[in-house]
Every structure is written in structure tokens, then in C-alpha cells.
Amino acid sequence: MFLAPPGEVLTALELLSRRGFEAYLVGGCVRDAVLGREPDDYDIATDAVPEEIKRVFSGYQTAEIGIRHGTLTVVMNGRPIELTSYRRDGVYSDGRHPDRVSFTKSLEEDLIRRDFTVNAMAWRPDGGLVDPSGGRNDCKNKLIRAVGEPGERFREDALRILRALRFAGQLGFEIERNTHQAMMREAAGLSRVSAERVAKELNRTLIGDFAANALRAYPEVLVLALPELKPLLRPEKTNDGIWEQTLIPLEGTPKDPALRWAALLLFCGKPQSTSGGPVPPADSQECSVTLAESILRRLRQPRMLTEQVITLIRHHEQRIDPANLRLWLSSLGPETAKKLLLLKRAGVSAKEPGDTRRIEQLDSLYMEAVRLLDEGLCLSVRDLQVKGDDLLAMGYQRNRRLGQALDELLRQVLTGELENRRDALLKAAESLLPID
Ligand code: CTP
Question: In the chain, which end has fewer C-beta atoms inside a 10 angstrom radius, N or C?
Fold first, then answer.
């Protein structure tokens, strides 16, 4: 294992130990180091209680948002570092926060209250790895295993059920059998978890390197959070294998939340739309759009993400005429349009991997789109080389017709009938001037 924390983190460990306190790196950063992955952030656990931590770091900027649970954030050289007193958690009546936190002097006690063995290891430069639950071994065997009695861990915080799925999607691990059984037994606890926390874990699951594998292996866990997708999991014979049709393109899309959500929800309305007999594909698509929107709203996902996902689902079957690429980029917006090309490509590669002609077409459309956008393609009325004021000076009135004229100028620029040059636009605007 190789762990080379940034200088500020080493300084924080050093400051605590100089004052006679024990301090270790814990949680995700130790897990990542054992796995040979680059840690995202570094969390420190210490036997100093919050008041003592505050005194040690009195010369630094601190944030006390988590202080009730024993966490103080210290900013060193602009880097926020979370320092948490060793805790021995009590009863969690809300399934999230312990009702009362009691501090302990024992690192081991702090480690065994944690969710999974792979997250229950600690390390410090001169103390080596502390691993009371066999986390290192589970890393080696690629196993997500709850620490101690699994049911207790999920009753303390039901979000851990989705965290297990997230780690499976992120790390490509299997969920150990007893842990999995306890997750399913304690599933009801998820109803007490806030939508935001659920959404955060699902987002991280979906952008994981092994997202499709995890969803293929544990769809029953996903539908605990997304019960709307249950009909997709019906036996192959009754649903044309929609789940697999969903996962293969998902695997082929880049790790972007909107793309992954769109891939996941692309066919979510299909079972509902076909339950009353065959329906035209367009209707099935609208059912997916409606259901996707209600799922993402229920999860309180940001509006931008929801809108992008819905646009991707609604347009994913659309044929794109290379001659109208500019118009199309303008109507969807450049970012969504590029994502749509990637989603379509993933769909074609999944459904018709032999159709190299279609895949090449989509690739060349994507490259052309990137080129046009790099060139600063005019995409909206705002990008035109004339403004409303120019048209007003020419005799236009401040009314609907002014907007219509600007839209028409944009359309002509996008179709290539007109160049986005001031003189050409002014001339065209004059010819559009209404004669009253
Ligand atoms: N933890 C826990 N139960 C939770 C959340 C967190 O036991 N519901 C513990 C785990 O030991 C975890 C640590 O707190 O490793 C830090 O949690 P977090 O900041 O959420 O990081 P991780 O999810 O573990 O990993 P990452 O660093 O990838 O965010």
C-alpha cells in the first residue's frame, strides 16, 4: 500500500501528535490507498475531543458545521481537512444521525462503528495500517462486507444500503452474501432517508467505472430507491430483455450524470405503455419522459440535470440530417446536442454493433459539431452581429415582430442562407421590415 498525503494533511497529523493526541487518516482515503487508487480527500480521526482539536488549530481558519457530531473542518493552505473525534455511536432514531454522540479514546471502537470493512481502516505514517475488521483482505477479494452485525449497520443508517451499491459500481466489488441479505431485510429504513442523500449516492453509482455491472448484479437494490423501474426487471420473456437493453448502452456512455441517467431511464415507460397492448414507439417514449421527469423531481435533482435528461430521452430516436446540423445544435443547445450524439452512438453500438456505417456517421457528426462549436458558431439570437436596437433604428416597433425578425435572421444564418455579418444581416432585416 502506498499513501503519500499532501503536506497540509501531514502537518495536521503532526500538530495533533505533538500535543500528545493520537491521529490517523481514516475512511475513503485509506481504502483508496490500499486499492492503489488516488484518494479524493483526506479525513483525520483523533482521540482529541472537539474543544481540544479547536485549541490545536486555533491559529487556522476552521468551520464548525459538523461540530455536534465531533467534526471540525480546518483550512490549511486553502485545503479543507476534516478532523473528527473518535466516536462510539449510540442509537440512531432517524436512521442517519446518532441521537447522542459519545467520544472514545479507542481508535478500534471508532473503526468498528463504520459501515463497511473496506472503510474501517486507519493509517498514519509512523503507525502503519490499523485494520480490525479485515478490510485489507476484503479489498483483495473485492468484497463489500458490513462491519460486525450487518443488520445493525443498516438500521443505524439505511443510506448504507445504497452506499453498498455505490461502492459496487465505483470499485467493481461484489456485495458479501450476509451483507446483501441484511440490506434487503432493512430496506424499509430507506423511506426515512432524504431524497438528496439518495440522489447523491445514485449519481455516484451511475458514474462509477463499473456501474452497469453493479446494476446487472444488484437490480433489486437499485429498485429499492427507484421502485418505478421494477417493471423493467420482469423475466426476459415478458419484457424483451429491456433491462439488458438499458445496461448495454449505459456501459457505452461516458461517465456523465445526465448521460447515465438518460441511458438508465431511456425505456422506463415502455412496460407501462405496452401493458394495454401494442402502442406506437412515440407514445412509449413520452411515457418514459413523463416517468423520468417524476423520478428526477422526486429525487430533487438539479433542474438543469432533469431538463437535460428529459431532452435526451425525448430526442434519442431522432434522425439527424448533417445538412441541418447547425439548426439542430441551436435548437437543443450545444451541450445537450453533443450528449445526444454520444447517447445515440452508445445505443447503436449496443443494438447493432455491426452497423459500422451508422457509428461512423455519428462519430463524424460529433466531430463536426465540436468543430463548429470551437469556431464559435452562432447559436442564438444573442450571437447575431445585429441587436434589437439596430432593428429599432431601422423602423421596427418594439413588438412581437421584432422578435420574429431576429429569429428569422438566426434561422437564415443557421441554414447558411445568410452570413453572420452585420451588413448582410442589416440588409436582410430591411427586407423583412413589415409594411404597415
Ligand atoms: N461512513 C459510515 N457510514 C456512512 C457514511 C460514512 O460509516 N453512512 C464512514 C465510512 O468509514 C466512510 C467515512 O465515514 O469511509 C467517510 O465517509 P464519506 O466522506 O461519505 O466518504 P466515502 O463515501 O467512504 O468515500 P469517498 O472518499 O469516495 O467519498
Answer: C
For residue 43, which atom of ligand 1 is closest to its CA? 16
Query: What architecture is domain 142-225?
Result: Orthogonal Bundle (1.10)
Q: Whose CA is nearest to atom 27 of ligand 1?
A: 28
Contact, 50 vs 72, CB < 8 A? yes
Q: What's the distance, CA 296 to chain centroid?
A: 12
Q: What is the residue extent of each domain of the chain?
A: 1-135, 142-225, 256-377, 381-432
Q: Which of 119, 152, 160, 165 to mutate to test the pocket of ligand 1 (most atoms within 8 A of CB)?
A: 119
Determine how β-strand 174-175 pairs with β-strand 143-144.
parallel
Chain-centre distance for alpha carbon 188: 24
Ligand 1 atom with least separation from CA of 41: 27
Per-block average pLDDT, block size 10, for the chain (436 residues)? 88 96 96 93 95 94 87 92 89 66 93 96 92 97 98 95 98 98 97 95 98 97 97 75 90 95 94 64 85 97 97 92 91 93 93 88 94 90 94 92 94 92 95 78
Find the 429 Cα to ligand 1 centroid distance in Å. 60
Rounded to two decimals, the pTM is 0.90
For residues 340 and 312, is the Cβ–Cβ distance under 8 A?
A: yes
Architecture in CATH for domain 1-135:
2-Layer Sandwich (3.30)
